[in-house]
Protein 1
Amino acid sequence: MGVEFAFTISAVAAVCEFIVKTRTGTGPCEVEAVGRCAECGYAFCASHSSAQFTDLCAKCVADRAAASQRSRADAERAIDEAPARIAAAAAILARSSIAPERRSYKWEEKRLLRTATVEHALEPAWPVGTFTWAQPETQRQGPRSDLRTGVTRSGKIVPMDVAIDGESPLIVSPTGLDSRGTILQVAAAIEDLARRT
Ligand SMILES: [Zn+2]
Ligand SMILES: [Zn+2]
């Protein structure tokens, strides 16, 4: 460790290479350097160093933070826009010759002397793949189910083989897909299907 440290110090330029405002315009900072930035390669002084990293300058750390802020905002926006994309693709499919798959829920009903299988039709949907659904009462930690998933005409994301909340009778009532980002995969899958029309 000690040896490495000594080597780093000896490798840095004597003065800070940051361009700053000077009395005559702009020029190098020229304060004694304390390190060299692993990203931009400039030698930096104490005031142009980053507080968190010994091998990065203040500007590169600020640039990184801004970039990750931007990509987080982009990801949020993409998730917000996904339902509209799904609805648009479902509308295209609804006008196409690609028929949605029938969905139904069967259950055993006790009659007087026998049990009868009752079938309840659910809104048809176009299958888009298998996704993990979480159940509401269990919040995040509880059981999850990998369910064949589809999109209805109205753009609703539903499991293909079980009923969900709002579709009677209730068998599984997922709050929704396991992670918010999953909706992007659903959007991509339904758009892919819509492109084949
Ligand atoms: Zn830098
Ligand atoms: Zn400086």
Note: The chain has two domains: 2-56, 78-195.
Protein 2
Amino acid sequence: MSESPIMDILAKYPPEPEAVISVLQDIQEKFRYLPRDVLTEVSRELNVPLSRVLSLATFYKAFSLKPKGRNAFHVCLGTACHVRGAQLVLEKLERELGLASGETSADLNYSLDAVRCVGCCGLAPVVMVGEEVHGKITQTKVPGLLKKYQK
Ligand code: FES
């Protein structure tokens, strides 16, 4: 039998239902999404119904059931960002990356998502790439921003 890809994660927590969120967070960090077969394993190992694991996985925005890019672009469309032109920034990123919001490139280099307020409204419009915050982004700044994340 092959070794579980999440053995290291499961070993960190007691095998109890209370550990499920922490385990999912670690899996999201490791794989950048929550693979379906891994969720089945979480369900079995922590004794939580798979339906419950799936509902948690879809409820929290931090979790994704689809693979995300190594460079995960999140465009804030919260109110402060929206009134300062965030929608135009999102559209520019869609054109430049050739991705619609919610999509990941086939080579897994990029993903693009729209999100609600990321908590730095003073910097609106805000684009996050992974954990990095980029403020006051306009359409004209998008190519320069992308350049930073091109290999
Ligand atoms: S609305 Fe965009 S950071 Fe708050």
Note: The longest strand covers residues 71-76.
Protein 3
Amino acid sequence: MLNQELLDILVCPVGKSELRLEGDALVCTSCGAKYRIEDDIPIMLIEEAELPEGVNSPDELKCGE
Ligand SMILES: [Zn+2]
């Protein structure tokens, strides 16, 4: 389980918005990008993130606006 302290300091790499824990992934509260957690380590790379519905490329993400 990812600890809360780590969760508190992690932000979305797109626009530095807060993340929330959703199952075994971290989801940006602003742009909705979903970062998976592997072996308790969140993969905070937009290239690896699952994009929200309707978004085809990371360039289209609106984060922190
Ligand atoms: Zn974001």
Note: The chain is about 10% helix and 25% strand.
Protein 4
Amino acid sequence: MPKFLTDSEVKRYHDDGYLSPIDLMSESDAAAIMAQLEEVERLHSQHVHAENRNNAHLVLSFLDELAFHEIILDVVEDLIGPDYSLWGSVLFIKEPGSKHFVSWHQDATYMGMTSNNFVTPWIALSPSNKETGCMSMIPGSHRNAIIEHDDTYGKDNILTRGQVVKDVDESQAVDLILRPGQMSVHHGEIIHGSQPNQSSQRRVGFALQSYMPNNIDQHIGENMWLHARGKKRSQQNTTFLSRPAESLDKSALLQRDVVNKNFSDILYHGAAQRREY
Ligand SMILES: O=C(O)CCC(=O)C(=O)O
């Protein structure tokens, strides 16, 4: 029996490649996390922007706690089984009125994994809707394996390479509307993207990208994992990451630098350019 989802929700995830919305916390709890994030942006913006939008859970206690939120861990267990680790996280922030967008893509394309059967919870810390530029999914597209992507390096495209899958039938797209404190989950191979933020408020999403069962290995780059639940991965060729003792702790910052260098080597493997994020 699933721990948090219903049997039909589990089936829907496997059929469609995503599930949304899932109630994770109250709006006021989400606002409290957002306030902590905005405080870090005000005082230490270098630790959460550009390349450091990646893996902020390794240096900020309130995002680390989110990565270990009981509901998230139960949902992930329902979808990929009891033994798994977290590979990374990304803060996807679109400022009010910014042109930033995310082209149609499949996450697993450049993650260098031996299997793509993994799951990403995406947590809304502000309203995520058509106006603010929510994610849209192409249901069932996770069943077609990886499709060729073109690397465009588009200026306003917030994906590393501006990678894009061509010929997507946009009439099939489903918008994932989330209030602050709700989340969606999506499969590593689903085609998805998002439009610019046309509103006067920020759109802030925190993607735990991704939780993966222990039988998935990195075949490009180093195996670096944060154990999340159940049995630990095999020790062989694995660096086990530590949770931050406190926010912006020196050893946590040093560890995150190493992880982000590995992240960049993986995501830009074979790329014609490297960007700042
Ligand atoms: O936040 C967005 O608009 C896109 C996020 C995304 O592509 C992802 O989490 O895989």
Note: The two ends are 40 Å apart (CA to CA).
